[in-house]
Amino acid sequence: MALSTSLTNHFLIAMPGLQDPNFARTVTYVCEHTDQGAMGIVINRPIEVRLGELLDQLDIQPTSPGVNEIRVYQGGPVQTDRGFVLHTTGPSFDSTLRITSEISITTSRDVLEAIASGEGPKQILIALGYAGWGSGQLEQEMSANAWLSGPASDEVIFMLEPELRWLAAAQILGVDINLLSGEAGHA
Prior knowledge:
Strands 1, 2, 3, 4, 5, 6, 7, 8, 9 and 10 form a 10-stranded mixed beta sheet that branches. This protein has 187 residues and is an alpha+beta fold. It has helices at residues 51-57, 109-116, 137-143, 154-158, 162-172, and strands at residues 10-14, 27-34, 37-42, 46-50, 71-74, 78-88, 96-98, 103-106, 124-134, 147-151.
């Protein structure tokens, strides 16, 4: 079956009725969506870890002020020991996937070295783990009313405080997510 609509570069906004603790009240940025499945990064779940701790573990010495205090996010429940850097497109790194002309994702160490030295991308979101869906799984969840999808916004990803992102992503669609119920409507 061919994929009718790719959700690459879209937000998946958890509906209020979504009870899965991995995704309740989350906004996930979809990095890739094909008929083989989908991959995304949850952008509104900061964790207690700061970038300085990750750099320590990787023996990278930061030389740029403030780098140690950059927040790290729980990007999703898959491969939670693996780092992902969602960033504005600029210089390319060893392992960069360009999602749009404005947004890329990198998984290689060289992006962290660049950030540590103040040479990294202008805007970044660093996550441990990702959200993944097998073939047809995301489409099933969409039809079960688990997610609202809409166009992604760099501003929501990189500039808003994490606790504002869930509401803001829905507002792009003109939706007040607090007014939605998790139940599918029946006429």
